[in-house]
Amino acid sequence: MKKKKLLALLLLIQIILVNVLSFFPEFVENYYSNGLYPYISHASRIIFGWIGFSVGDVIYGIVIFMALRWFWMRRKTWRRDYKYNLITMAACFSVIYFMFNFLWAMNYRRVPLHKKMAIEKDYTPAQLVAFTLKLIDKTNAMHAALQKNDSLKVVSPYSNTEIYSHTLNGYTNLAKELPYFKYERESIKSSLISVPLSYMGFGGYLNPFTNEAQVNSELPKYNLPTTACHEMAHQLGYASESEANFIGFMASVKSNDLYFKYSGYSFALKYCLRNIAKFDEAKAKSLVPLIRKGVRENFKESEAFGKKYDSFIEDIFEYIYDNYLKINQQKDGMEAYSKFTGLMINYYKDKEL
User: What is the full per-residue pLDDT of the chain (353 aa) written as tens digits?
Assistant: First the structure.
């Protein structure tokens, strides 16, 4: 019981310490994100990357089963042993919280990417429209290269495993330009809970305990390359969803594979059109006819996927994840996903897209 009380006390100390470190992002950047974390993530991917299935999903299943079993066995003790039960829960959460932050989540407290890259993140509506027009040209060009009939959607010829194996090419090319995005030791897997993830509204996730990039294998195939590259960005220690979107986009379009380029450009185009619609819906609609019909067919494919798995479950998990992100230094919550448009616009301001 003394050990459990100590662990429960350490939980409070950990929470205070983690929040204090939020005020020292340079310290976290230098000593954790660029110091300790690369060794942790590299070791994790060596240990778990070679295994053909998602170890993290299995661990989650075991933990959930054990937790439910414990609650069931203790169901009649809450009135007389509530202190013991609460301390036990706090002690367990203390261990999980330590592992969560030590193995990955301290990256939420690192220096923001736009500061690291010395670029702005704000933009004007005019800049967004101009950038979107460039994306339309690029997406149309990639579609034309892959599908000669402008009315047909792009269909990827790759299996999921082949897509995962091709992701490293984009990161290798990206690292030649930006060395801090160097990626080694792949650990990318289709999640064993892809169908539940679809109902929850997630395209994938990074398991912080095993450093496996989990991809929702139910997604439309043309989306998978950028989704996988997004989760790989989390593996590199970029916890922000907007930053992971930005890095995932760049890794996709830097690939030598046209299907990856198409995935990246179409991914960014969808977000930009949505952001335009927020301040000028008529303008967003006026841009749609400029997009090849086949590209729009791929967009419809994504919409059909969303409708297929649309349910109240997604609303619940969006609310939970929105608050999770806000607690972890992402004040925009779920809106953070779309904020990467500012990074793209400013990074490519003086560069060819």
Answer: 678 889 889 999 999 999 999 999 999 999 999 999 999 999 999 999 999 999 999 999 999 999 999 999 988 888 888 888 899 999 999 999 999 999 999 999 999 999 999 999 889 999 999 999 999 999 999 999 999 999 999 999 999 999 999 999 999 999 999 999 999 999 999 999 999 999 988 999 999 999 999 999 999 999 999 999 999 999 999 999 999 999 999 999 999 999 999 999 999 999 999 999 988 999 999 999 999 999 999 999 999 999 999 887 777 867 776 666 667 666 665 565 568 899 999 999 888 88
Report the candidate in 313, 256, 288, 306 with the shortest Cα–Cα distance to residue 132: 288
Spatial separation of the C-alpha atoms in residues 70 and 85, rounded to whole Å: 10
- Burial (Cβ within 10 Å: 0-12, 13-18, ≥19) of residue 210: buried
- 296 in a structural domain: yes
103 and 119 belong to one structural domain: no
Q: Report the C-alpha dihedral over residues 101, 103, 108, 112, rounded to 10 degrees.
A: 150
pTM of the complete model: 0.93
Q: What's the total number of domains in the chain?
A: 2
- Cβ–Cβ under 8 Å, residues 332 and 339: yes
Judge if 104 and 128 occupy the same domain: no
Asked, for residue 352, whether it belongs to a domain, the answer is no
Let me know whether 17 and 95 are in one domain.
Answer: yes
Cβ proximity of 235 and 41 under 8 Å:
yes
Cα distance between residue 290 and residue 137, in whole Å: 9
- CA 347-219-338 angle, 5° bins: 30
Same domain, 90 and 124: no
Q: Which domain holds residue 260?
A: 113-347
Close Cβ partners of 11 (under 8 Å, ≥ 6 residues apart) = 90, 91, 93, 94, 97
247 token code pair: 């890095």
**Same domain membership, residue 141 and residue 101:** no
Answer whether residue 270 is part of any domain: yes
